[in-house]
Every structure is written in C-alpha cells, then in structure tokens.
Amino acid sequence: MPTEKHGMQEQRHVHKEDTDFKITARRNKLTGLWAAGQMGLSGPDADAYSKEVVLADFEEVGDQDIIRKLVGDMQAKGVSVTEDLVKAKLLEFEATARDQTPQPE
C-alpha cells in the first residue's frame, strides 16, 4: 500500500518531468526563432517555423533530430551554420528557458 510520503515523492517526480518538458519545448521554440531570424523569417513565418522545430524534437530521443533539422534547413537557405553552433545555441536557450519557467519547489 502506497504511503503518503511515497505519493508526495511521486507527485514531485511528475511535476519535475512536466517542468523539464516545458523547459525543453521553450528552449526549442527560442532556438527555432533564432534560426528563423538567421534565415530571414519574421513575424508569423518565424512563429510557424519555431513550432516546426518544437515538433521535430518528438521524432527521436535526444537532440539529434532537432540539430539535424536546424542545420539542414539553415544550410538549405544558404546560412553558414555548424552542428557545434546549433548545440551552443541549444545550451544558451536552455538556460534562458529555465529562467523563464517556474521551477518546482
């Protein structure tokens, strides 16, 4: 029989997973907006592209799917970009997303 303490631990774990998901989605949106700007997109086009980037992260576990999309799209538009630059931007925007997302107590 689950104890109250176990239930609270479970609840904290679920809340942390939810927060991590929100941080990752926010990071991907911010990275998508950055990439959109690099490709000359703005306004609704940039917003639509950032949503594509968020959805691309559901293709496989880890960041390789989003890195592949960003590098491929940017290079196709003639933007000089490397995987290392995209990885650095993901880290930069993850920190921003953490600052913008309420954390569990």
Tell me what the structure shows.
With 105 residues, the chain is mainly α. Helix 1 packs across helix 2 (43-56). It contains 4 helices and no strands. It starts with a helix and ends in a 5-residue tail after the last helix.
Total count of helical runs of at least 4 residues: 4
Number of strands: 0
Structural class: mainly alpha
Q: In the CATH hierarchy, what is the superfamily of the domain at 28-100?
A: Domain of unknown function DUF1476
CATH class of the domain at 28-100, named Mainly Alpha
Mean pLDDT: 89
Overview in brief:
This protein has 105 residues and is an all-alpha fold. The chain is built from four helices and no strands.
Task: Set out the fold topology.
Elements: H1 4-38, H2 43-56, H3 64-76, H4 83-100
Helix pairs in contact: 1-2, 1-4
Features:
single chain, 76% helix, 105 residues, mainly alpha, 0% strand, Major Prion Protein
